[in-house]
Amino acid sequence: MTKIAILGAGMAGCYLGQRLRALAEVRLFDKARGPSGRLSTRRGGEFQFDHGAQFFTARSEEFLKYLAPYVKSGLVQGWKPRLVTLGSGRTFKRQWFEPHLVGVPGMSSWLKEVAAELDVQLHCTIVRAESLEGRWTLHDAQGRQHGPFELVISTLPAPQTAELLAPLATRLAGVRMAACYAWMLGFEQRPGPGNWEAALVQDSPLSWLAWNQSKPGRSPKPALVVHTSNEWAEGNLGRPEEEVQAEMSAALMACAGIDSSLAVFSQLHRWRFASTPVDLGAPYVLDLANGLAACGDWCLKGRLEGAFLSAFQLAEHLSGA
């Protein structure tokens, strides 16, 4: 095996790039501006929003060992917000009993350091994969061709992987992923009652609120990230953006007393495949006969650590460890 293509430059893709470059020439492809996946941070003027993954945990020995140098360098740090539960007209204090980690100064800062050592082609959306005599040619949205590759590994969401790499579709058919809306609101001064910094929301279209400036290394400007529940997002995917924002605005006022009309910055983002209600139940998919593989957080519980462990186990297999 001499050439490997990896689709996606998030946690799973970047880790695979690190591990497999000793075995072959490896190239990563991602449609985004930078390596991140769900470890995404968006800026709007002076405001900074982690609008994808809000934090991550590390429970396995493998992930803890992998993160250790980034923790030592300060690129990964703990986040201990004042945490509450909002719902039914009452506010309840909560407590986390394990470390919750974030990238510093943005969620993907440490992942960018990983990717800097890899061959990553950004702004490149792969739209078709063509197999000829056991090798794959990838076609991007600009009409360019890449390859040929002996092995193509997808770390994209399961539905996108199944559509792009047809021989894997049957094996991915049972995976179910769900959407989420992320609303980013920037304020000159923090509005609303209470001094909480993060909140779980019950009995509402919303599921999570976080003041991003409470995380280490962030801009001090009041920046609120509002996430909907997956169920509400799935039921409202076809609605116009202004209607989605109007209902989210009403829910924000109802649960937290925050008037979104006071925001000086507002942007809505839809994560089409944000969580995994039904995962694969296996660490990865491998079809060496067709030169294909797939892994990601949708294989194992849908968390960032799940993405790492999925990629770790695939890399172990491919490297013969």
Describe the fold and architecture.
This protein is of the alpha/beta class. The chain is globular. It has helices at 11-20, 61-73, 109-115, 158-164, 169-172, 230-235, 241-256, 304-319, and strands at 3-7, 25-29, 42-44, 47-49, 76-78, 83-87, 90-93, 101-103, 120-121, 126-132, 135-140, 145-149, 151-154, 176-186, 198-201, 206-211, 223-228, 265-278, 285-287, 292-294. It folds into two domains: 1-31 and 123-175 and 279-321, FAD/NAD(P)-binding domain (3-Layer(bba) Sandwich), CATH 3.50.50.60; 40-106 and 176-278, Polyamine Oxidase, Chain A, domain 2 (Alpha-Beta Complex), CATH 3.90.660. The protein is 25% helix and 32% strand. The strands form five sheets. Strands 7-6-15-16-17-14-18 form a seven-stranded mixed β-sheet.
Question: What are the secondary-structure elements, in order, as H or E?
Answer: EHEEEHEEEEHEEEEEHHEEEEHHEEEH
Strand order of the largest sheet: 7-6-15-16-17-14-18
**Total beta strand runs:** 20
The structural class is: alpha/beta
**What is the mean predicted local confidence, pLDDT?**
95
Gap between N and C termini:
16 Å
Helix content: 10-25%
Write the layout of secondary structure elements.
Blueprint: E1 3-7, H1 11-20, E2 25-29, E3 42-44, E4 47-49, H2 61-73, E5 76-78, E6 83-87, E7 90-93, E8 101-103, H3 109-115, E9 120-121, E10 126-132, E11 135-140, E12 145-149, E13 151-154, H4 158-164, H5 169-172, E14 176-186, E15 198-201, E16 206-211, E17 223-228, H6 230-235, H7 241-256, E18 265-278, E19 285-287, E20 292-294, H8 304-319
Parallel strand pairs: 1-2, 1-13, 2-9, 6-15, 13-20
Antiparallel strand pairs: 3-4, 5-8, 6-7, 10-11, 11-12, 14-17, 14-18, 15-16, 16-17, 19-20
Helix pairs in contact: 1-8
